[in-house]
Fold these 2 entries.
Entry 1:
Amino acid sequence: MKSGLLCRVAPVALTVALAVATPVHAQGLPEPAEPTQATDAPLDPESPMAEMPDIGVEWPDLPAEEAGEQASGIDSADEQGRRYTVTLAGVPATSENQIAQRFDALSALKTGDSKPANVAQIDRRARDDAALLAELLRADGYYDARVDPEIEAVDDRIAVTLTIEPGPLYTFGDIRVSGLDETGSLRETFNVNVQDSVDADDVTLAETTLKAKLANDGYPFAKVTAPDVVVDHDTRTASMEVHIETGGKRNFGQILARGDKLPFDAKHIGRIARFNSGDPYNQADIDDLKRALIATGLLSSVDVSPVETGDPQTADISVTMTPAPVRTIAAEAGYGTGEGFRVSGSWTHRNLLKPEGAVTLRGVIGTREQTLGASLRQSNWRRRDWVLNARVAASNIVQTAYAARTFEVAANLERQTNIIWQKDWTWSVGAELLASDERDIVARGGARQTYFIAALPATLAYDGSDDLLDPTRGFRLSGRISPEGSLQGGFNGYVRTQIDSSAYLPLGGKFVLAGRARLGSISGTALNNIAPSRRFYAGGGGSIRGFSYQNIGPRDAFGDPIGGRSLAEFSLEARLRFGVFGVVPFVDAGNIYTESLPRLDKMRFGAGLGGRYYSSFGPIRIDIGTPINRRTGEARVTVFVSLGQAF
């Protein structure tokens, strides 16, 4: 005889047609309401249950032998409740992990095992869980499974054992997939075959995979009917029928922008999309476009979906957008030994110049810096991931090495990277114009000099790490070159170059070994012809920890740092993480040289210990360092606080 069975389990999500005499539903079973019991009367599992108050319904009698089976060895003292344990016996080895995990998630016994329970409560939960296990077994193809609950007293606890007799595993005897005549190669994507077990997960996965394959192969309107499964209990086999309506193969049509107060139009959406009108339809491109639109930060919600057109060979793309608030106020604060305190604040309108033209007004107040500036960041400028930046700023900076009052105008074009799409390759090209009034002997009241500087900086970087903010493996390599001209009395031309590299090696568990190297050079003119603010310096939280900011390198006759034309820096960290906290011992080394090429000798060393708090927006670090080869006048301890890893 043949009958059908519904193979739907809460975590499985498989829909199949059914026609059984006694259908079984594996939904979570609610725990029945508990009867009211007198707290001062002993509990007798074999006694008749009291009438239910108020509504006049009598409890059914429980046969004595059945009650004895379910609660053997439990006396009347259990009215107050006991702790209990749950054991599954006889779970089929082929699906033990799957059934056990799902049972743990849905079990009434497991849900309540943190609190003591009386015999009646445990008995009801055991019966509910026996039905749950039977349904889970049917979802895996064991249609004749039987589950027997047993409850007994063991020491001061109650032991609940659910014994499984799975019976034979049913297999598919016949599978019919219709509607794929025009795309016959897709039949292999529905990877369920004759002789496979009647496993709901396998069928669901095959159905989902087929839908995704159809959408990615140009069938945006394809429909896959719910698998119709009929079980034959005599032969212990099942037949399955699946029908597909492909809806026809399509190409991308036009983009339709829909919604109120749209932050950008269909033309700009087309610039962000990785497809053009006429390209074969691909659902992966649709998903990518949706993520890219969300990444702009200008939308609170977005729906991207294909829509029918009058042309049976194309599908238009409807983009329905809800704009997000565009104004942001931000602030940050930090402290570093030698740098002092620094507080900055900003106001941003992220779409003041449409499309995606973010204008920011920013100010900095600190021990050694005061800055006021404005910037423009035009994202997805002319093409996706290209960003046009422009800025104007006035600043007053007083460091140990120099004091500078600077007015700057700069612009650059860059290919950006971000958390959603971490790029392997990024680059930038730009131009800078500066007028700077500087003094390089700050402590002795040296004469000021005015420099007019023009620069054409360019960078190229490769990122092979696994995370933008907290890398644990891989490496990074970047290079920067900046031809510059300085007008101060006469004209001087020179070239600044810098190479940065870092590598990350996981050593098991939460232990990562990280290393960094930086080399820099200025060639083409003497040190005195270079504005003090454009020279190389070392020391500080992003350089050689253990030394104050800019406190490493050659000094003048008064002991003040003068900067140099080359630098070399190296760092090694051992990053150990314990949950949301971490400990980072580190060693840094490096120096500044007056020559145009670093000599890699006379290294200064700093070492210390850092702490990390891994927040949702990145690690917050506190590094405490000390110079190993300390000299007179250098601080014994330095402290740096900032967001993100040191490198």
Entry 2:
Amino acid sequence: MAKKSSGLFMFATAVCALVATAHGADATVRLRGQVGRRLDDCLKNNLMAVDVKYITDTFRRKSEFWHWDTEFWGKFMHSAVPFAQYTGDERFSRRIASGVDAVLSQQLPDGYIGNFREDLRGNLGWDVWGCKYTLLGLMMQYDRTREKRILDGARRLADWLMAQFPAKRPLHATGGYRGLASGSVLEPIIWLHRRTGEAKYLDFARYIVSELEEPADSPKLISSALAGVPAAKRPTGDPLWYKGGLKAYEMMSCYQGLLEYYETTGDRRCLDAARMTAENIAATEMNICGGMASEELWYGGASRQTEPCPSIQETCVSTTWMRLCQKLLALTGDPKWADFIERTFYNAYLAALSADGRVFAIYTPLAGMREEGRDQCWTTANCCNANGPRGFLAFMGSMLMSEQSAISVNQYAAATAIVPFGDAPEKLARFEIYTHYPQSNRVRIRYDGETEHDFTLKLRIPSWADNTKLELSIPEGRGLKKTDLGVVKVGEYFPVSRKWKPGDMVEMVFDMKVKAHELNGHAAFTRGPIVLARDCRFRDGDICEVLSAPFSTANVDFACVRSPNQGMRIVCSARLKLGHHQHRTATAEEPMPSEVKFCDYASAGNTWNASSAYRVWLPIECKGVRRR
């Protein structure tokens, strides 16, 4: 782990990215720059401001019949433990420990930890789902402290679960969504097996996998995926949405567990099913901002993203998607999963975080305005605020990964990173990443190790990054010897193999020319990984105004301009012909081009009120039909 910094909030913070790669190596990452400042705000004003006593008091009640408030503590723990470990903040660590004590104090003699009334435990509602997060929370703290009593508490809770299923009822018949919520307990059960080595937990994991696939009314997570059935077209088994099988967050949580199961058992079906489902989600559900799902359900959203929809891109869905992609990246080494994380993180995810880092929006629409989410479960908390900080862990966890003699760089943000590689624990590669990415198109990665090391540095070339230029700089005398590294291919890794010496540096220059995209008679614009949006604060016309026909994506030129200092990180300007704009010539119907400004989607709407209403997809005028 990184040593304690001289002050968490004196500069952009860091976190120990708990990344278990395919070969078990962990990277320690310190974020700096703009992304680091967003993390600072999230830690100070969201995560470290959580009232731990409040979110653990729910375990004292034993009268619940449906709700999911026992998840809040486990979600909090998943990000609080690694961030507390990095910062060395003893007061925060004590609050975390007191929360663990409070939860364990509510464990019943039979091992149950929860708040459901006795006749409904392990049956209706979200009880098993809550047990999943309680197990995750306990094991996060156990991994840090190695306190046997914490692991024993997790064991006893898991033993209680095993006594319920299948003796009293089948797991897939509990809760909602054809057992998806309950089936996601697979992930912590595998965690527990790894920490204890006890075969009974692996046996229970096998049972959970069978419940997700074998019964006639199960969600069929493996066979439907292997058959290529789209996520949104898998049978629900019930016309009521809340009993259906299409719930995005819960389905991806089950696939997360199946990946953990594959990693332990080598059952290839589980890896292939998770991979094929994620590929289908990316193709049919993910929108231009990397978000997905409407009202938290799959709905074929990729082709419908131009439709007005206020309840899309739930933060829980975005965070879980990044976690799933992070795991797939570690297991497969395919850089497309890093591409997907990048798109979601810089757009849908950061857009959901308020400007001060205090709260995460529940939904983040592509047009309109953002707002603080509603309270849930008769508490003053909600699922997305509890889940949101885990998104930073997924992003940072994917930044650098190692295997034997290779280190892959998957995300580009200003950072310091220490990466172990090879078989010897003393083999550490230290890097400084200098950049203002994604505002800037330049990234410098300097090897800052104390000794020379032979390894291959694999640089991800994003799928959007045509004409990327790479240059190797080697200290020579008082200057640098620079070498062009040649042609790169988008969507692949570019390997740089050498004996790396302190001061060796790779410089990457990306072509971030703005690209236009058309869909359903609408146009949207991206600059590198960033989606652009119109914002009312520019006061340059009606943001719903149509683009004049004929519209050609090939004839749109953008220029980066100075930000008006309203929290907009990237601002671009273009001259566009707008079909309803007032500026027209006196002798022709052809509209005059007008200057229109755009900002990055994460900055658009960041006042969270109507003063910064925004829009991503702009309608195109079509032969007398004026789309709005």
